[in-house]
Amino acid sequence: MLNLGNNPFGYIPAQLYNISSLRTLDLSNNNITGAIPSRIGNSLPILEKFIASGNRINGSIPVSLANASKLQVIDLSYNSLTGLLPLLGSLHDMLQLDLRSNLLESDNWQFIASLANCPKLKMLSMRENRLDGSLPTSVGNLSSSLQRLDLGNNRIGGTLPKEIGNLPQLQLLAMDQNSIVGEIPSSISNLSNLVVLRLSHNIFSCQDHTISRLSSAVNRAFS
């Protein structure tokens, strides 16, 4: 384990990324600039936790991260990462993927389909990025253990797919501050563990039966 969090480091020596025995690398809350080394997933093959939140890291997320097959936690939130989201479906042990507050883009949402291969995933946050297009129906194929799904404050349009109701353990669903249209799917009432539902600042249309279902879900959550 190597924890260098909460320091004023402006850069990390390249040699650090060659410590092949590392299982935890925590670089959070520094002042690190530059890009993540492109071969990080190859040079740190048994890495389980990669935490570099709260820096000024730019560039893209290396596709080689998918080769660090033991990764359980990736937290790159609050940086300036750009480019397309990589396909991380080979990380079968991943529990948490936190990429919020970056400048990341979607590519036909293929990364969502790939994450269906991560059966232990409990938390997925990509809030405040540049994701656009319509949320695909493959969102319903995400882990049945998923508890938190936050895609708020992006550029997502289209309708909210009914498959969102196929996530039985979901406790938080945030799709606020997007451009989603149409009705709120009735399948949301299937989310019996839901505690927080954020759908504000969209363009939803509303029918009486939708309000009735939402009311039932809210009453169940707080009963």
How many domains, in number, for the residues? 2
Tally of DSSP helical segments: 3
| Shape field | globular
Low-confidence segments: none
Task: Report the radius of gyration as a whole number of Å.
Answer: 18 Å
Helix content: 10-25%
Average pLDDT taken over every residue: 91
CATH architecture heading of the largest domain: Alpha-Beta Horseshoe
Q: Classify the secondary structure makeup into a structural class.
A: alpha/beta
Widest sheet, order of strands: 1-2-3-4-6-8-10-12-14
Q: Kindly estimate the percentage of residues that lie in beta strands according to DSSP.
A: 15-25%
Name of the CATH superfamily of the largest domain: Ribonuclease Inhibitor
Sketch the major β-sheet: 9 strands, parallel
Word description of this protein:
With 223 residues, the protein is an alpha/beta fold. The protein has two domains: 1-130, Ribonuclease Inhibitor (Leucine-rich repeat, LRR (right-handed beta-alpha superhelix), Alpha-Beta Horseshoe); 136-223, Leucine-rich repeat, LRR (right-handed beta-alpha superhelix), CATH 3.80.10.10. It has helices at 40-43, 110-115, 208-221; strands at 2-3, 24-26, 49-51, 73-75, 82-84, 96-98, 103-105, 123-125, 132-134, 148-150, 155-157, 172-174, 181-183, 196-198, 203-205. The protein has a nine-stranded parallel β-sheet, with no helix packed on it. Helix 1 links the parallel strand 2 and strand 3 (49-51). The longest helix has 14 residues, at 208-221. The termini are far apart. The mean pLDDT is 91.
